[in-house]
Amino acid sequence: MKKSLSVVGLVLAVAAASVACDKIKPPMPELQKAPATSGQASPPEGERTAFAQAAQKELVDLKVTIAGFKAKAEAASAQTKAKLGEEVQKLEADLRVAEQRLGELKAATVESWNQGKASFSSSLEKLKGGVENFRKNAV
User: pLDDT tens for residues 51-104?
Assistant: First the structure.
């Protein structure tokens, strides 16, 4: 009986010690996200944020430029106004696509960042090309 009481006492002591030890253990580190599967490493969060901010600024600048084109089209003669108005509408549509892709890029996962960046860059280049064509043709 004495032996079983000492065993029970020992078990209780070990149980109490293990509960107390749980309180001193450092927290488990969070699991890191899996690396990009495309073979290319995804940029760190700081680079992603910087890219998104620069892209947003560029889109705002292009939006202001397109608004200027729209005002120029409104002030033109009737025939020129119709032609320039169509071109401005195309630029505005391209701008909306670029803004949508930037939104998708901002929400992209680590794995889809590179693909989203390429998609956004493509739409931005299309928009820039349209702006340059408008400048050349609307002289």
Answer: 999 999 999 999 999 999 999 888 888 888 888 889 999 999 999 999 999 999
Q: 70, 119, 114: which is closest to 98 by C-alpha? A: 119
Give pLDDT tens digits for 75-86. 888 888 888 889
Side-chain-facing half-sphere of 58: CA atoms under 13 Å: 17
Q: How many CB atoms lie within 10 A of CB 50?
A: 12
Describe the chain by its helix, strand, coil percentages, rounded to 5.
Answer: 80, 0, 20
Rounded CA gap, 59 and 55, in Å?
A: 6
CA distance 85 to 91: 10
Question: Is 91:130 a contact under the CB 8 Å cutoff?
Answer: yes
Note whether 42 and 114 are within 8 A (CB). yes
**Packing angle of the helix pair 45-75, 78-106 (nearest 10 deg):** 170
* Distance of alpha carbon 105 from alpha carbon 113, whole angstroms: 7
Q: Give yes or no for a contact between 47 and 69, defined as CB atoms under 8 angstroms apart.
A: no
